[in-house]
Design goal:
The chain is α/β, with parallel strands linked by helices and about 500 residues long. It is about 40% helix and about 15% strand. It has helices at about 5-10, 25-35, 50-55, 60-70, 110-115, 140-155, 170-185, 200-210, 225-230, 250-255, 280-290, 345-360, 365-375, 380-405, 430-440, 475-490, and strands at about 45, 75-80, 85, 190-195, 215-220, 235-245, 245, 260-265, 295-300, 325-330, 340-345, 410, 420-425, 445, 465-470. The strands form 3 sheets. An 8-stranded mixed sheet has the order 4-11-10-9-8-5-6-7, with helices on both faces. Strand 6 and strand 7 form a beta hairpin. It is elongated.
């Protein structure tokens, strides 16, 4: 390369003066990039450091430091009295078009993982009516939580090293007591595995309990965040219809008896809100025991039941060791905490612990410690009672508002538990069109069709309607949302 061209190349090297990164690091990175992309070819002699300083208006020490780094990493060769050269060991760059398979495809498994959650709707933008799956965050005692975490940070000990993949033992002991008292779950701390949210629990279970091609029952309509991990594991997801008694077990047995796993939300079905009847629960347990299948019980919001005593868990009826109970603390505390748990049958617990260790070694320890203290000092129970009362007030507000403002347009589904309720259209509305109109007016309206499996037959069809969240929605925002929804449904 002619000296004039080389000087022009050096003078054009990008340096940002005044930036936080030192100039010698910037110069090092710029020369390295020029070598790797072929602008400075192997064997090319670089100008003396004094000339380099003049071309870039930098100090000689800046150039010397950059040269030293580049020489140590093998990009430059040099000796006193001989000059500095681009190393001949650096291979010439190959044009991208000549590299076969440069855009390497994902594996079939990788593609399955990537596409599995594409149909799941994620929250975006500020909170607004009628966002689903969202607890009331402003009710959480963050001042108490901050104090508990700060206390742990002030007194670090050996537990701040690598921990048990199963989770912080004191937290598992406290959850064991809580689950037995509140949900009738029968377990020991050794059966509990703390996870980074219930989503990780569902992925772990799908991965280790199913082989590619195994069939798995999935409620339809149902929680798309659960069908995603099943599909990512290569399972053949078989949609099973839901009616007023919950999952139609007889339909699943008749059409897919060979399934290895069934995912259910028996206490509060997502999204229809129905509870699985006792005969259905017993039939499901009998099928699983007879076929040596697994049942994944997702008890995602059982803390929030507003009428009658809480329903006992499916796990409490299990006598064959086939139910894995999955819970989340996102709906009780706050979603950003990302803490969940599994209660596994004794024969499965150790395998889940080892699988958890493969995935992320263990869930962050300080939040687990803070939660253990939060439970032990009574804050957890008080928070649940306070939040349950608040949710009930907002649920009543929504139910009354729907009856008063939209009784001629919508019919409410079950509203005795959870953070949202479903409302069915009385007229012939297109739920997708209504949802789009809602977004245009600043409200979120989740179509019930969003929860239907695209591969499901007419047996799984659900009357068109909407899922409306209420727990996190302030009264004024809820009133505004009802007004806008009324205008949409009446074509105004």
């Amino acid at each position: 390369m002619p000296a004039s061209h080389l000087n022009q190349l050096i003078a054009a090297l990008p340096l940002q003066r005044g930036a936080s990164e030192p100039l010698f690091r910037q110069l090092y990175a710029a020369i390295k990039a020029a070598v790797l992309d072929g602008r400075m070819s192997p064997g090319m002699q670089l100008p003396p450091t004094r000339d380099f300083c003049r071309l870039l208006a930098v100090s000689r020490q800046t150039v010397l430091n950059a040269y030293a780094l580049l020489t140590a990493e093998g990009y430059l060769d040099g000796a006193v009295g001989r000059g500095t050269f681009v190393s001949r060991e650096v291979p010439l760059p190959v044009p991208p078009a000549a590299v076969p398979g440069l855009l390497r495809p994902l594996s079939a498994r990788g593609q399955g993982v990537v596409t599995a959650m594409r149909q799941v709707a994620f929250h975006r933008g500020p909170l607004r009516a009628f966002r689903v799956g969202m607890p009331r965050i402003d009710h959480f005692p963050f001042d108490v939580w901050n104090r508990l975490e700060a206390r742990r940070w002030r007194r670090p000990d050996h537990q701040f090293g690598y921990g048990d993949p199963a989770g912080y033992l004191q937290l598992r002991e406290l959850l064991c007591v809580y689950l037995k008292a509140s949900r009738g779950v029968q377990c020991t701390p050794q059966q509990i595995v703390i996870t980074s949210g219930s989503q990780q629990a569902l992925f772990l279970l799908s991965t280790i309990l199913l082989a590619p091609g195994d069939a798995a029952w999935m409620e339809s309509p149902g929680y798309r965040g659960a069908s995603g991990p099943l599909r990512a594991a290569g399972a053949c997801v078989f949609p099973v219809p839901v009616d007023a008694q919950g999952l139609d077990v007889a339909y699943g047995v008749a059409h897919c008896p060979q399934a290895k796993l069934a995912y259910v939300t028996p206490s509060h079905q997502m999204p229809l809100g129905v509870s699985m009847s006792l005969p259905r629960r017993l039939a499901l347990l009998a099928w699983a025991a007879h076929n040596k299948a697994w049942l994944v019980e997702d008890d995602y919001d059982s803390e929030y039941r507003y009428s009658g005593a809480p329903l006992a868990s499916l796990q409490s009826l299990d006598r064959a060791g086939c139910v894995v109970y999955v819970g989340t603390l996102s709906k009780v505390l706050f979603p950003g905490l990302r803490l969940g748990y599994m209660v596994a049958p004794p024969a499965l617990a150790e395998a889940l612990v080892q699988a958890k260790a493969v995935m992320d070694r263990h869930t962050a320890i300080v939040p687990q410690m803070a939660l253990a203290d939060f439970i032990a000092e009574g804050h957890f129970g008080r928070h649940i009672r306070r939040t349950r009362d608040s949710n009930a007030e907002r649920r009543d507000l929504l139910v009354r508002g729907l009856a008063h403002e939209l009784g001629d347009q919508l019919a409410c589904g079950p509203a005795d538990s959870g953070l949202e309720l479903c409302a069915y259209f009385r007229g012939g509305h297109d739920e997708e069109a209504v949802s789009r109109a809602g977004l245009a007016r600043g409200i979120e309206l989740r179509p019930l069709g969003h929860y239907a499996d695209p591969a499901a037959g007419p047996e799984c069809a659900t009357p068109p309607g909407l899922l409306l969240g209420f727990a996190a929605i302030p009264p004024a925002e809820m009133a505004h949302g009802l007004q806008e929804l009324g205008r949409i449904l009446r074509g105004r």
